[in-house]
Every structure is written in structure tokens, then in C-alpha cells.
Write a structure and sequence with these properties.
Number of helices: 22
Structural class: mainly alpha
Radius of gyration: 22 Å
Largest sheet: 2 strands, antiparallel
Strand order of the largest sheet: 1-2
Length: 496
């Protein structure tokens, strides 16, 4: 019995050191990512802010190096350790990501700073900053950069650029992959991650140049390109995108749509553009966006400014569907039917393998077809039916996994709505049902704006402090596809 306990303790210690190795490396990389933000502040002669961001970077790098080199131990991750590493890494990154805000005084308390950082790394775009244009340039770039790195996952980025994380990389990707399994383009996952990031970088650069050619300056174009391709939604102005030209709004609409599609599909389509047409999920995704644009355009149609109605409809539908969260119009003032539709779109999301959040088009389609298959079984109980997607049968374990995901998603949505409403009534703030429900849906779907007091022209500053911690948790859970976060609270994950 004694030897069994000592062996279990030794295994737990080994697991802890392997997790420390991974998380420490990620924290150190996050610290290095703060350096460009400090250089931007220095470039704009914000010397005090540049020094404070560098101090935040130094603290983060030192702590990460200690956890990585002195406490951690390199080794092969088990599947459950991969899930644990993903779940823990995002919470730890969000914590250290608060340091630039706190050290510069851009955000004055830990709760608000953690909320802003979590909204960044999870590409949610919810903000407690009333007017981003008042922030130092270095902080704005740090804010946008958290979304860009979070767009395809800091863990996947680490696999691509840090060879030492190659071992166990598939387990990490499995924990973060939004589809049934990582979509490989090459036999080695590390090479796949590199190619996906090259595609990501190429689209970001092209969008930045197109925005710069319009009415944005270079700084604005860079910040918005970073937060568009990540489907993040952090802007540099108080009115989001509404103050920019029609040209700029159409460019951002196009790149939001691109970001909501699978990046593996983009890579294949560079050589064979017909891949877009042949891909079932992309056809469904594009169809849903087109239908949403048509319905919204009809709902807000004004004969004298019909072109503005179409542009606002296209922008809003694409922004919500891809979970980017930018706004050119206050949809909180639209007719109730359109508002209900927008809340429903918050649950959909883009394609699997994209930077978008939400349930994802793949899961929605599988759920619908599995439900149709069940109906057919009721009519023909002796017949054998299979759920199909894209002309292929979907194995029962994947169908069950999709159904479980949706069940957990709705459970978190309902529980989160109840808790946020109770927090508002007990702690202060008095959040109504519309505000609470849309805020939780927005957090889980990684969207940003909601309805009511957290609408597209408002922010989350008035949410009680306990509510901000709840929403931060939901943002991270939604970004990591729920399971890696929920597994952190199970005994089986930490058992021998």
C-alpha cells in the first residue's frame, strides 16, 4: 500500500513537471510577445509606457523560464495531460497578459484587466474600455496582438515555432481542434501548423495593405488586420468600424468571411480553387451567411439608402456569424425579430478549422442530420440508417461527441445566464434577462457585443466584478471547445 501511494505521488509529480515545462514555455513566449508592444510605444515616444511594458515582459519571461527550465521536465504527454496543458495554459496566459495593462495603468484593477486579456486571447472582443483611442499605442497593439495569437491558438503556434514542443503536439492539437480531429495537410503535425500560420500571416498582410490603401493609417490598418483575421473584434475607436468609409467596411466584411472558413481549406484552395465548391461545410457556411444577409437587409431596408442597408446587413451578419464582433450599426435598435435572429446566430459560428468561435457549422450540420436520421428510424424501426455529411458516413462516436458538446454548451449557457442574473441582483448592476442571456451567449460564442446593456454601442464596464470573472471563464471555455476546461474539474484527469 505504501509503495503504491509513493508511486502514485511520483507519477503526479512527473505529470506536474511535464505540464510546467509546457506552460512555462508558453508563458515565456507570451512575455517575448510583449516586446513589440513596448517598441511601438517607444516609436510614438510614449517612453513611460514603453518602460512599463518592458518590465511586464521581463517579469513574464523570468517566471516562464523558471517554470520551463528549472521546474519543468521534457517528456511525452499523455492524452489527458494534453487536455490539461491546453486548459491550464490559457488561464495562466490570461493572468500574465494582464501585466501590461496593470503596469501602465491603462486598466486599474485585476478583474477588469483579466477580463480584457481573456477577451483578447479568446478572440471574444468583449471590452471594459469605453474609448480605445485613449489608450497608449503600445497597449492597443498588445490588445490586438493577443487576439491575433489567440486566433489559431497559442499552443498550435508554439508547436510550429518551438521544436521542443513537438513531442506531444498531436495531443495538444486534439484538445484544441474544433473539428472531429486535426485537419492535417502534411504527415507531420508541426509542418501542418507552420503552413496554416503562413496562410494566416499572408491573409493578415494582404488585409493590412488594403485597409492602409483606404482611410486607415498604418497603425489602424495593422491593428484591425490583426483583429479581423483572428475574428477578434478589438478596434481602435469608440464607434468600432462605423466611423470608417464604405470601402473599409467592405474590405473588413470580406476578410471576416475568409477568417470564418477553414484555413486548411484555404491552403488547399490556393492550388485548386474548386475545393471551396466541393467542401460541404464551406457551402453550408456560405449559405447561412447569405441567408442571414438577405433577411437582415429586408428587415432594415430603407429605399432612400438601400445601399447602406445592404452594407450594414452584410457587415453585421458576417461579424456575428464569424464571431468577430465588429459593428457598423446598433442592432440593439432593430426590430425584435432581427435581434432574436442575431442571438441565434451567436450559437452558430464559422467553419471548423477557422478562427471563429461558436458551435461551428460542422457540428450544426451533424446535429441536424442526426436528428433527421432519428426521425426516419421512428418511421422505419427495422431499417438501418447512418448519419452522413459531405457524402460520407459519420461514425456514431463522432455524432455522440457532437451531441455531448451541444448539451454542455447549452448547459453552460443556461447556467451562466441564471448565475449572471443572480450576480447582477445580489452584487449590484441589476442586469436584465436580455443583457444576461446575450452576454453569456456572446462569451461562450467568443463574439463580443450582446444586447441590452452590453450592446454594440456599449461595453462591459458596468457588469459586476463577479460577473466579469464568470464571463471570463465562459470565454475561455468557449474558445477551448468546452471539454479541456471542464476536464480540469474532474477527478479522473488528475488521477494516476
Amino acid at each position: 500500500m505504501l509503495s503504491s501511494k509513493s508511486g502514485s505521488a511520483s507519477q503526479q509529480a512527473s505529470m506536474g513537471r511535464r505540464l510546467s515545462f509546457i506552460i512555462g514555455a508558453v508563458v515565456a513566449a507570451s512575455g517575448l510577445a510583449m516586446v513589440p508592444a513596448a517598441l511601438v510605444s517607444a516609436g510614438y515616444q510614449e517612453w513611460a509606457e514603453a518602460g512599463q511594458i518592458l518590465l511586464a515582459a521581463a517579469v513574464t519571461i523570468i517566471v516562464g523560464l523558471i517554470a520551463w527550465r528549472f521546474i519543468g521536465r521534457h517528456g511525452v504527454l499523455t492524452t489527458k495531460e494534453g487536455f490539461a496543458a491546453v486548459g491550464l495554459a490559457w488561464f495562466v496566459m490570461a493572468f500574465f497578459g494582464t501585466l501590461p495593462y496593470l503596469f501602465t495603468g491603462a486598466i486599474g484593477n485585476l478583474t477588469d484587466a483579466f477580463f480584457e486579456t481573456a477577451a483578447g486571447f479568446t478572440t471574444t472582443g468583449s471590452s471594459i474600455v469605453p474609448d480605445p483611442s485613449t489608450l497608449p499605442h503600445g497597449i492597443l497593439i498588445w490588445r490586438a496582438g493577443t487576439q491575433w495569437r489567440g486566433g489559431m491558438g497559442v499552443i498550435v503556434l508554439s508547436i510550429a515555432i518551438l521544436p521542443l514542443l513537438g513531442v506531444g503536439g498531436v495531443q495538444l492539437a486534439r484538445a484544441e481542434s474544433p473539428g472531429p480531429q486535426p485537419d492535417r495537410l502534411t504527415p507531420r503535425f508541426r509542418e501542418t501548423a507552420k503552413r496554416l500560420w503562413w496562410v494566416y500571416l499572408a491573409f493578415t498582410t494582404v488585409e493590412m495593405l488594403l485597409l492602409w490603401a483606404g482611410d486607415m493609417n498604418l497603425f489602424q490598418a495593422t491593428a484591425h488586420a490583426l483583429t479581423t483575421m483572428s475574428t477578434g473584434g478589438f478596434g481602435t475607436e469608440a464607434d468600432s468600424i462605423a466611423g470608417f468609409s464604405s470601402y473599409t467596411q467592405w474590405v473588413i466584411t470580406a476578410f471576416m468571411f475568409i477568417a470564418g472558413a477553414s484555413f486548411a481549406l484555404h491552403f488547399r484552395a490556393f492550388r485548386k480553387p474548386r475545393e471551396y465548391v466541393r467542401n460541404t461545410e464551406f457551402r453550408i457556411y456560405a449559405g447561412l451567411v447569405i441567408v442571414a444577409v438577405a433577411v437582415i437587409a429586408i428587415g432594415i431596408w430603407q429605399n432612400d439608402v438601400w445601399h447602406d442597408s445592404i452594407r450594414d446587413a452584410a457587415f453585421t451578419a458576417t461579424s456575428i456569424m464569424t464571431t468577430t464582433g465588429y459593428a457598423t450599426a446598433d442592432f440593439g435598435l432593430w426590430i425584435p425579430g432581427l435581434q432574436i435572429m442575431i442571438v441565434g446566430m451567436m450559437f452558430l459560428g464559422g467553419s471548423s478549422g477557422s478562427t471563429a468561435g461558436g458551435v461551428k457549422t460542422f457540428r450544426v450540420a451533424v446535429l441536424a442530420r442526426a436528428a433527421a436520421t432519428d426521425l426516419r428510424r421512428l418511421v422505419h424501426p427495422r431499417a438501418v440508417f447512418v448519419t452522413r455529411f459531405g457524402g460520407r458516413s459519420v461514425p456514431d462516436p463522432i455524432v455522440e461527441s457532437v451531441q455531448s458538446f451541444f448539451l454542455f454548451f447549452m448547459f453552460l449557457f443556461m447556467t451562466g445566464t441564471v448565475l449572471l442574473g443572480m450576480i447582477g441582483s445580489r452584487v449590484g448592476g441589476g442586469l436584465d434577462l436580455v443583457t444576461s442571456a446575450s452576454a453569456v451567449a456572446s462569451a461562450l460564442g467568443n463574439i463580443g457585443p450582446g444586447l441590452g446593456e452590453v450592446g454594440p454601442t456599449a461595453n462591459y464596464l458596468a457588469v459586476p466584478w463577479m460577473g466579469k470573472w464568470l464571463l471570463s471563464f465562459l470565454m475561455i471555455a468557449g474558445r477551448l471547445e468546452i471539454f479541456p476546461v471542464l476536464l480540469l474539474f474532474t477527478r479522473d484527469l488528475w488521477r494516476r
